[in-house]
Design goal:
Elements (H helix, E strand, L loop, with lengths): L5 H7 L8 E6 L7 E7 L4 E7 L7 H17 L23 E3 L2 E7 L4 E2 L7 H18 L17 H14 L6 H11 L7 H7 L6 E3 L8 E4 L5 E4 L6 E3 L1 H12 L17 H15 L5 H5 L1 H22 L11 H18 L1 H11 L1
Helix pairs in contact: 3-7, 3-8, 4-10, 5-11, 7-10, 8-12, 10-11
Length: 362
């Protein structure tokens, strides 16, 4: 086993570990933060993360939200099942759950043992458990007052904000001769009226702000390695006040596209109705009491909008020179945008069936 980098060991050992560091290795494939698994001589593992302060310019507020969530979870545990919220580990020198070192912001959290994530749904039971995981998370935090949470990412999951950012990117980098760029730009133009639909419903009092996860894609739901049941949700930096519909839509968008976000052939992208129904069954089994009939009415709108929104974000980042999402080639974000827009088309083509699924599960 390779010797862990001394600088990472020094960061990890600034926290209150139960033993010396024995190994450090990259963990996951997130697009924003740098994440590592830390093994200690005591046998206990942890998750070390360097927060991307370009994305989270006020990381202390992120940590305050995590502390509020952790305290609430301790006071309102989900009885009768395994459900874990990652614990923050204190800096041994300051007592705070973070470390600021050479301008970099670090934190250490507990590691969810004997649990795994999936990058793509391979069977209906996985879909059920991913939906159940989000439902349990919403059930856990439904009584957490949203005013106790800071809005760490103003404009995050507020689609009109992304449309405005796209328009600004267009001013700086107009669409060229690339057929894919032109197709994506035309796709956006045809759906401009879609952008404010959830925000307008909120302003009209039809939908209410609540605590949300903010990024409930399938690989943020931890499944028990033995039973396959949902046991945790991770990547909690985006927990903030918002509309649960962004969570529901994002979870469906992520889970019900078997081709995945990185599909090489956009024409292979389809929204899978069987996975949709099974995921919603799992979600509503856990969280139905948290939702009004009006909330249910907006589920189709949500999954359509969030797919469009993510495509818009990828396209804007492509035009801006790939400054937000990590990429492996210059047109990576353009390819990602194509996938999300093809998924949006598939969702639109199956509107009646999706609405029938929701009606069946009421």
């Amino acid at each position: 086993m390779a010797t862990p980098a001394p600088e990472l060991v020094a960061v990890a050992e600034a926290f209150a570990l139960p033993g010396v560091v024995s190994a450090i290795a990259p963990l996951g494939n997130g697009n924003v933060n740098d994440t590592y698994r830390v093994d200690t001589a005591s046998g206990v593992c942890f998750v070390l993360q360097r927060l991307n302060t370009a994305v989270f310019p006020q990381p202390e507020l992120v940590m305050q939200n995590l502390e509020a969530l952790s305290a609430h979870a301790e006071q309102h545990p989900l009885i009768g099942q395994r459900w874990e919220v990652p614990r923050l580990i204190a800096n041994r020198h300051t007592g705070r759950p973070w470390l600021l070192a050479e301008g970099q912001f670090w934190r250490l959290q507990s590691y969810i043992e004997e649990a795994v994530t999936v990058e793509a749904i391979t069977n209906r039971e996985q879909a059920r458990q991913v939906g159940r995981g989000l439902g349990l998370f919403h059930l856990l935090i439904r009584e957490l007052p949203p005013e106790q949470l800071a809005d760490t990412l103003p404009g995050f999951h507020v689609t009109p904000t992304y449309l405005a950012a796209y328009d600004q990117a267009l001013l700086c980098s107009p669409i060229g001769q690339d057929d894919r760029e032109q197709w994506c730009a035309a796709f956006v133009e045809q759906r401009r009226e879609l952008a404010p639909i959830l925000e307008d419903a909120n302003k009209a009092g039809l939908l209410q702000l609540r605590p949300i996860h903010g990024d409930p894609k399938i690989n943020n739901v931890m499944l028990c390695a033995h039973t396959g049941t949902a046991v945790s949700m991770v990547d909690l930096d985006t927990v903030k006040p918002g509309l649960v519909h962004y969570d529901i839509g994002d979870c469906l968008r992520s889970a019900c596209n078997p081709a995945g976000e990185e599909a090489c052939e956009p024409d292979s992208v389809k929204f899978d109705l069987d996975l949709c129904e099974t995921l919603l069954e799992g979600y509503l089994d856990a969280a139905r009491t948290s939702l009004s009939d009006t909330d249910l009415d907006y589920i189709y709108v949500s999954v359509r909008l969030i797919s469009f929104e993510l495509g818009l974000r990828f396209l804007s980042d492509h035009l801006a020179g790939n400054v937000y999402f990590r990429t492996t080639h210059p047109n990576h974000n353009l390819a990602r945008a194509l996938v999300q827009f093809r998924l949006t088309e598939s969702i639109e083509a199956q509107e009646e069936q999706i609405r029938q699924i929701v009606a069946k599960l009421r």
